[in-house]
Specification:
mainly alpha, 3 strands, globular, 5 helices, 9% strand
Length: 135
């Protein structure tokens, strides 16, 4: 068991690939262009809401949600200068202020109707409240 966390590039390898796959899938399947901007997360939140309304079972959309979360993480990395961190198979973003953010879990929370990737990015980019801080 490794107690030391890995940082980019090894920690970022999988999430960067998942994000790129999500971008390609949205471009090809939904004709939606994702450009790694914070503004594009409005569209991602709407896509997750639509999937949720259609009643797709979680098992069927797990990989899609992971891709959307990884995409959001890459947006946060580019906005803040943060970096991917990983331990035990989980992936987080560490922003320069030292806080850890879990965009992949936030994508799952969006799917359950209790999250927003756009707001997660806003909070991570602005130094706003962390979602687990009760805000």
């Amino acid at each position: 068991m490794t107690t030391q966390q890995e940082t980019r590039p090894s920690a970022a390898a999988k999430p960067v690939r998942w994000a790129a796959d999500a971008v390609a899938a949205m471009r090809e399947g939904a004709r939606l262009r994702l450009d790694y901007s914070a503004r594009s997360l409005w569209s991602v939140d709407r896509m997750i809401e639509e999937i949720r309304r259609e009643g797709a079972p979680y098992a069927a959309v797990k990989a899609v949600l992971r891709g959307f979360g990884a995409y959001t993480g890459e947006v946060i990395v580019r906005q803040t200068g943060g970096e991917w961190w990983t331990t035990g198979g989980d992936h987080w973003i560490r922003t320069p202020d030292g806080r850890l953010w879990d965009p992949i879990e936030e994508a799952v929370r969006c799917y359950t109707g209790d999250g927003s990737l756009r707001l997660l990015c806003r909070d991570a980019s602005s130094g706003g409240p962390h979602p687990r801080d009760g805000a």
